[in-house]
């Protein structure tokens, strides 16, 4: 299969194949992304995050269908917990979005976290680029809802939608301490339940307390399963995007995201080089034994490892 030609010609199989190569850390995928990088930057990336059970998949599904009615092409990356046996995603968001999966204007991919911090697969960033090149107008990243480490979603998304639900009780204080600060738009889902107004009010109060910037995130009450106020939620997302563009914050966020990505790629390559060096020379095991015997400390061991790596590269 000519993956490049297929990707540029709208072949879903080519898109899926390239993402699989990325997940498998295939060198061919990296070369293709290098070659096609100039074609990225056209899609709007929306993060959907929040605590487990908030209805993130339903919210993503309804927003995607709304955008399809506007004739927009939509990509969805659903980041699932990884199966410890297969390494694959186990929640299967594509099953829950089966009607969307048959839409030619929608591409859905479930990706396992594979132990990545922040509940995000390390391949998710590259997958966003693939869907961007593939011609998606909007790309949704739905996370697993694992708490404070959800902040990693900010590295990828232009707008982060925090989905909340009534009945969180004291848990909302713990949520506020970590992931509340990253929301650009707050959606109180299942707002037909008792306590919905209270939840919305609590979020409003916390936003008043924590935010002193020019932009104040809106709080939208929705009932995703009934498609209630999904249009208002999309309007809030669009308003945030417009604010980011007009204020210059969009470029700042993109610059910070790119800086983080470059550093992460650098770290990954360094670790890979060290692992390869260790396989060839057993240097890490030797340093571990020295540290166990207290002949050296872990800090000195790490510096020696770095020197070994530099000497190999020179």
Write up this protein.
The chain has 314 residues and is of the alpha/beta class. It has two domains: 38-247, P-loop containing nucleotide triphosphate hydrolases (Rossmann fold); 259-313, no CATH class. The chain contains 13 helices and seven strands. The chain has helices at 3-8, 12-23, 27-36, 56-69, 93-96, 98-101, 124-134, 171-178, 196-210, 230-247, 249-281, 283-292, 298-313, and strands at 44-49, 74-80, 106-112, 138-142, 159-164, 185-188, 219-221. A seven-stranded parallel β-sheet has the order 3-2-4-1-5-6-7, sandwiched between helices. Helix 12 packs antiparallel against helix 13 (298-313). The longest helix has 33 residues, at 249-281. The chain is globular. Residues 82-94 have low confidence and may be disordered.
CATH topology of the largest domain: Rossmann fold
Low-confidence stretches are: 82-94
- How many strand segments? 7
State the secondary-structure class: alpha/beta
Helix and strand run: HHHEHEHHEHEEHEHEHHHH
Order of neighbouring strands in the sheet with most strands: 3-2-4-1-5-6-7
Give the helix tally. Answer: 13
Q: What share of the residues lie within helices? A: 40-55%
Can you identify the CATH superfamily of the largest domain? P-loop containing nucleotide triphosphate hydrolases
Strand content: 5-15%
Number of domains: 2
What is the CATH class of the largest domain? Alpha Beta
What radius of gyration results from the CA coordinates?
Answer: 22 Å
What is the correct CATH architecture of the largest domain? 3-Layer(aba) Sandwich
- Terminal CA distance reads 38 Å
Question: What is the overall pLDDT average?
Answer: 84
Shape: globular
Largest sheet: 7 strands, parallel
């Amino acid at each position: 299969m000519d993956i490049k030609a297929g990707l540029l010609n709208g072949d879903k199989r080519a898109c899926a194949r390239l993402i699989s190569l990325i997940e498998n850390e295939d060198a061919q995928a990296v070369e293709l992304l290098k070659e096609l990088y100039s074609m990225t930057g056209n899609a709007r990336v929306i993060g959907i995050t929040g605590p487990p059970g908030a209805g993130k998949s339903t919210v993503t599904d309804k927003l995607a269908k709304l955008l399809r009615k506007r004739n927009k092409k939509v990509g969805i990356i659903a980041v699932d917990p990884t199966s410890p046996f297969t390494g694959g995603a186990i929640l299967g968001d594509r099953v829950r979005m089966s009607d969307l999966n048959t839409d030619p204007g929608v591409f859905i991919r479930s990706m396992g976290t594979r132990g990545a911090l922040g509940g995000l697969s390390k391949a998710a960033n590259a997958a966003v680029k693939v869907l961007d090149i593939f011609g998606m107008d909007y790309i949704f990243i739905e996370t697993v809802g694992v708490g404070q480490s959800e902040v990693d979603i900010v590295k990828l998304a232009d707008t982060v939608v925090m989905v909340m639900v009534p009945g969180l009780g004291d848990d909302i204080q713990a949520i506020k301490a970590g992931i509340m600060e990253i929301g650009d738009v707050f959606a109180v889902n299942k707002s037909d339940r008792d306590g919905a107004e209270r939840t919305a009010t609590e979020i409003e109060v916390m936003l008043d307390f924590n935010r002193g910037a020019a932009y104040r995130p809106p709080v939208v009450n929705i009932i995703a399963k009934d498609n209630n106020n999904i249009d208002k939620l999309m309007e809030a997302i669009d308003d945030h995007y417009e604010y980011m563009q007009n204020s210059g914050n969009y470029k700042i966020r993109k610059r910070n995201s790119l800086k983080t990505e470059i550093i992460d790629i650098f770290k990954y390559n360094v670790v890979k080089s060290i692992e390869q060096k260790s396989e060839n020379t057993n240097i890490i095991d030797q340093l571990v034994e020295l540290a166990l015997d207290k002949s050296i400390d872990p800090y000195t061991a790490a510096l020696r490892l770095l020197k070994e790596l530099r000497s190999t590269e020179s």
